[in-house]
Design goal:
The chain is an all-alpha fold. The chain is built from 2 helices and no strands. It has helices at 10-21, 26-42. Helix 1 packs antiparallel against helix 2. It starts with 9 loop residues before the first helix and ends in a 25-residue tail after the last helix. This is Terminal protein Tpg-like protein.
C-alpha cells in the first residue's frame, strides 16, 4: 500500500469538475488523477522517471480537498 500526499495544480481540479459535469464516470476521472499524480509525484514535474506509466487502481481510500 502506498500513502501519497500530494498537492496538485488547480488545473487538475478544473479538469475533474469539467469531466464530471460532462458526465464522465469514475474510470475517466481516475485517468485524469493518474496522469496528474504521474506528472507531479512520480515524475517530479518532468525531472525524473520519463516514460513511466501510472495506473491509479485498487484504491482503498482517497481524501481530497480544494484550497
Amino acid at each position: 500500500m502506498r500513502w501519497i500526499t500530494q498537492d496538485l495544480p488547480g488545473e487538475v481540479a478544473r479538469e475533474l469538475f469539467a469531466a464530471r459535469d460532462a458526465g464522465a464516470g469514475e474510470q475517466q476521472q481516475t485517468v485524469i488523477l493518474a496522469r496528474a499524480l504521474g506528472h507531479t509525484y512520480f515524475r517530479e514535474w518532468g525531472r525524473r522517471a520519463h516514460g513511466l506509466h501510472i495506473a491509479f487502481s485498487d484504491i482503498e481510500f482517497a481524501d481530497f480537498s480544494i484550497g
